[in-house]
Each structure stands twice: as C-alpha cells, then as structure tokens.
Design goal:
alpha+beta; 40% helix
C-alpha cells in the first residue's frame, strides 16, 4: 500500500476517534437534560437581572437557555469543572450536562454529585470562571 494513502487513513481514523471521544463529554439523555434545562429556565424566570449582573453572574432570558451538544464546549466545561474541584475530594468527571445561558455563561451539572436529594449546579461565566454553586 502506498505510504501516503496509509498515512491519510491513519490520520482520518485518529480524527474520527478524537471527535467521538469529545462528543462523549456531552451528556444528552433527553429526560434528564429536559428537566435540567427547565430547572435553569425556572431559575431565570422572575430574576432581578440588574441584581444578578451587579453580582457579576451570567444572565440570560429563559428563551436563550439551551442544552449544549458541541463537543468542544463540553470539553471546556469538563475541564473547568475538574479544575475548580482540583483541591477537593470530588472525583474528576469525564462528562457533564452543559447548559448555555445565551452567550453570557454556562451551568455545568454532574448528576452524580448530589447534596442530599438535590443536584449541584455549577455556574461559570463565558471564560469558564466558576461564579457559584447552587443546589437545585
């Protein structure tokens, strides 16, 4: 076989494998994702946006809140979550539910991390700086 063709086949296979592993960073189970998006939309439904902005937190109209399925964004979310938990006993995660707040920030949710009956929601700004943790 021609070495150039073999190199092309190997490069294509590696690209495909790397894309598949990135896609695995996004959790998208329909039932859970739908509930989480609805929960975040409810949080932002009657919020005082001026107050939220004054606290330096991301703000979005509920209609702009959506589940993220972009593998690069999900990878950034997983990396930010793991970095912000580096000094805790929490295990690193390989995937998460990521909810976009328009263009202002994200919620990163690890459904395996709970506080009693509540799931922890981690709020990041658009630069992946952790702003706060909410239990919902």
């Amino acid at each position: 076989m021609n070495p150039r063709v073999l190199s092309l086949i190997i490069a294509s296979a590696l690209t495909l494998l790397s894309t598949r592993s990135l896609a695995a960073q996004c959790r998208t189970a329909a039932d859970t994702a739908g509930l989480l998006v609805a929960q975040v939309r409810l949080i932002y439904t009657n919020v005082d946006t001026a107050f939220v902005k004054s606290q330096g937190d991301p703000v979005a109209d509920p209609s702009e809140i959506s589940l993220v399925t972009d593998p690069n964004t999900c990878q950034a979310a997983v990396d930010a979550y793991n970095q912000s938990h580096a000094h805790s006993n929490a295990p690193h995660i390989a995937s998460a539910y990521v909810i976009a707040l328009g263009g202002s920030g994200y919620f990163v949710i690890n459904p395996d991390e709970t506080v009693g009956e509540f799931t922890s929601l981690f709020l990041y700004d658009r630069n992946w700086v952790l702003k706060r943790e909410l239990a919902g």
